[in-house]
Each structure stands twice: as structure tokens, then as C-alpha cells.
């Protein structure tokens, strides 16, 4: 198998719901990051073998293979194909894995992977309108469970003994870390400004400075009257896109590119679809085993903050150093544009590794239906 490297990783700012990016079509939003890849690498887009694009709600503005229309919107040659994948919240992380597998196997040499979600234009759950994806047999297998992620987040909090104050403390920290990262310019190298009719969006819009456990305590639970999960300790509904360019070290040299990281291992696993969001726990164990690494060798962890109970349960089970978890804040503060989040997490992690000389980074995401992706990358020499 061939070695695979990431040579560039970019993302748009994550726009808040009905915020600065809400007027931009998802194909055009995708084109922003595709164009940035070409501008930053200086390559001819004609060398790209494929574009693999994650998107969750593939209806309306995101229907009919948004990956292909992103390529056309970017003005790339018509000969470049594009495809769209859906592994729920991990869609663009899976897109990266598919791109890596294509290059690793020798089937392709230069592949772009990423994803988009314009949740202001295509609301969460829009794809379920008029039907149910679960079917009577799946529902019957799990005692007619609703497969509601919010209920699953509540069940996780109960199982791991995570009270409301602990969850709100974690949510507060997410905002504090994200604000500090913005202030020191930690996101500057990875962000691509988005020009809109109204303004130019240059920064993540979801960060709420001054958030405290006391302010969050005023919010009502969303999924259970006596529950602990609410809007303030859950991921934000967002708009955004992210993209990475993967190839081999040899092809990178031929193109005059310097690798950022090398891909060490990837894993995907299924877990209990009722708890649903615990998949990152076994996925972490699996990817570490595949990479031949110990948890103690990892210098940064990006665990998607779908709900505060998810990374906290992951911490409890793995025993990871909490100081290495989501050091730039997470989806509670920055946002979660579903189909773009996986590539966005990778982008944040890769740049953080480069900025701080961190050798190994591990990324993992919980996903609807009880699956999870995990990826380990290593800082390139």
C-alpha cells in the first residue's frame, strides 16, 4: 500500500443559523474551499482525479449530487468528477477516508475530499419529510425507539453520571477555548473568507463570549422535562464547508507541494444505536490498534461536541488527558455544519499540529444510527 499525505486543508468560517452564510448556495459555498485549495497549492485542477464530498441532508439545494455541482461551481474542468457520500455527521471524515483509500490503493493519485452543509437553507431533518428512514423492522428490533439523538445524549449523561452543571462547565470551556483561539489567530491560516452580497464573513460566528455555567443554567432542557441537555450544551446548527487535498509523497514532490501530515490509520465502527453517540469510544480503540500507537502518544484529540455528554463519556472511558481534548473549542462554540464537520475537524487539528509541533493527532465523530469514524494523522517531516 502506498503512503498518503494531506498537502492542504481549508475551511470556511462556520456561520450561525440564519447568519452571514445563510444566503450562499451550498454548491457555491463548496466552491469557495475548492478554489482556495487551488490558489494555495498552485496546482492545475486538471490533475485532480476525483472530488468526494460529504453532505447529510441531500434534498433541496443539496440534492442531485452536490459534490459534482461544487466542482462545476468552482469553474474546474468538466472532466473532473464528483460524488457525494453520507455517513451522517461523519460524512466528510468518511469522504477523506475514501479519498485516502483510493490513493493508497493506486487507483487514483490526487483526490480532494471534504463536505458542506447549509443548515439555514436545508434544515436538520429535511430529508425525512414525508417518510421514515428506519422502517418497522429496525424500530421493532430496538423496542420502537425513536432514534432521537437528543434522547441518546440524555441516556449517555445518565449512564456516565454526568449532571447538568458538569455539562454546562464543559460547554463554557468550549466557548472560552474558541474565543482564545480566535484572539491569538489560531484559525487564520485555515479559514477562507466568504464574500456574500451583504458582507465578507471572516470568522466563526457561533462563539458566545461571556458564557458561564450560570448563564447556561437559565436554559430549559430540550428533550426531557427533567433532562440535562439543552441548546447551550449541544452543537450549534451551522453553515460551512471544508476541503483537503490528499496524494502520495512522491506526487506531492512532483507538484512542488509540502505535506502537512501523513495519514496513519482510519477506522469506522458501529455501536449501540439507542445510546447512538458512543461510537467514538470503540472507534478510538480500533484506530489506535491499527496505527500501532498508545493513547499516551497522541498529542491532540478532536472529538466532535455533538452534545457535551459525548466527549465527556469518551474521556471517562478512554482516560485521555482532558487538556488535549478539543484545545481550540468544539462544535458547542464553533458550530456543526453536519456534512462539512469531519473535514473541518481535520483541518483544525492539522493546523494545530503544525503550529505546535505535535506529532500525532486523533479525530473521531459520533454519527446518527450508532456509527463512528476515527482517524490518526502524523506530522510530516
Automatic annotation (TrEMBL):
Keyword Protein biosynthesis in record: no
One Pfam family cited in the UniProt record for this chain: Thiolase_C
Location of the Thiolase C-terminal domain: 258-378
Residue runs in coiled coils: none
Active-site residues annotated for this sequence: 89, 336, 366
CDD domains: thiolase (cd00751)
InterPro entries hit by this protein: Thiolase, Thiolase-like, Thiolase_C, Thiolase_CS, Thiolase_N
GO MF assignments: acyltransferase activity, transferring groups other than amino-acyl groups
The keyword Coiled coil belongs to this UniProt entry's keyword annotation: no
This protein's UniProt keywords: Acyltransferase, Transferase
Domain Thiolase N-terminal: 4-248
Family: Belongs to the thiolase-like superfamily. Thiolase family.
Protein's name according to its UniProt entry: Acetyl-CoA acetyltransferase
Protein's organism: Nocardia mangyaensis
Amino acid at each position: 500500500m502506498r503512503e498518503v499525505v494531506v498537502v492542504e486543508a481549508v475551511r470556511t468560517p462556520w456561520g450561525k443559523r440564519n447568519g452571514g452564510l445563510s444566503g450562499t448556495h451550498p454548491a457555491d459555498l463548496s466552491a469557495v474551499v475548492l478554489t482556495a485549495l487551488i490558489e494555495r497549492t498552485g496546482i492545475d485542477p486538471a490533475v485532480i482525479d476525483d472530488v468526494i464530498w460529504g453532505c447529510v441532508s441531500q434534498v433541496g439545494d443539496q440534492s442531485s449530487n452536490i459534490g459534482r455541482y461544487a466542482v462545476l461551481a468552482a469553474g474546474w474542468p468538466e472532466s473532473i468528477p464528483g460524488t457525494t457520500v453520507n455517513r451522517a455527521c461523519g460524512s466528510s471524515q468518511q469522504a477523506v477516508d475514501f479519498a485516502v483509500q483510493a490513493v493508497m490503493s493506486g487507483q487514483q493519485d490526487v483526490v480532494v475530499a471534504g463536505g458542506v452543509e447549509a443548515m439555514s437553507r436545508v434544515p436538520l431533518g429535511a430529508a425525512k419529510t414525508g417518510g421514515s428512514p428506519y422502517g418497522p423492522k429496525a424500530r421493532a428490533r430496538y423496542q420502537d425507539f425513536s432514534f432521537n439523538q437528543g434522547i441518546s445524549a440524555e441516556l449517555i449523561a445518565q449512564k456516565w453520571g454526568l449532571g447538568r452543571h458538569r455539562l454546562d462547565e464543559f460547554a463554557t470551556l468550549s466557548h472560552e477555548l474558541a474565543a482564545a483561539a480566535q484572539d491569538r489567530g489560531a484559525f487564520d491560516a485555515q479559514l477562507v473568507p466568504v464574500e456574500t452580497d451583504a458582507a465578507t464573513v471572516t470568522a466563526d460566528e457561533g462563539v458566545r463570549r461571556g458564557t458561564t455555567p450560570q448563564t447556561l443554567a437559565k436554559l430549559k432542557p430540550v428533550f426531557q422535562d427533567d433532562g440535562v441537555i439543552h441548546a447551550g450544551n449541544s452543537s450549534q446548527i451551522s453553515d460551512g464547508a471544508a476541503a483537503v487535498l490528499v496524494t502520495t509523497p512522491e506526487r506531492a514532490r512532483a507538484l512542488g507541494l509540502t505535506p502537512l501530515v501523513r495519514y496513519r490509520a482510519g477506522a469506522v465502527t458501529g455501536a449501540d444505536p439507542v445510546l447512538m453517540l458512543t461510537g467514538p469510544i470503540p472507534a478510538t480503540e480500533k484506530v489506535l490498534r491499527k496505527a500501532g500507537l498508545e493513547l499516551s502518544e497522541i498529542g491532540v484529540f478532536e472529538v466532535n461536541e455533538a452534545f457535551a455528554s459525548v466527549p465527556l463519556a469518551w474521556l471517562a472511558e478512554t482516560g485521555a488527558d482532558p487538556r488535549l481534548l478539543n484545545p481550540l473549542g468544539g462544535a458547542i462554540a464553533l458550530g456543526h455544519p453536519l456534512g462539512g464537520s469531519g473535514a473541518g475537524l481535520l483541518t483544525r487539528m492539522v493546523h494545530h499540529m503544525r503550529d505546535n509541533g505535535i506529532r500525532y493527532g486523533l479525530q473521531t465523530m459520533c454519527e446518527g444510527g450508532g456509527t463512528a469514524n476515527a482517524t490518526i494523522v502524523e506530522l510530516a517531516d
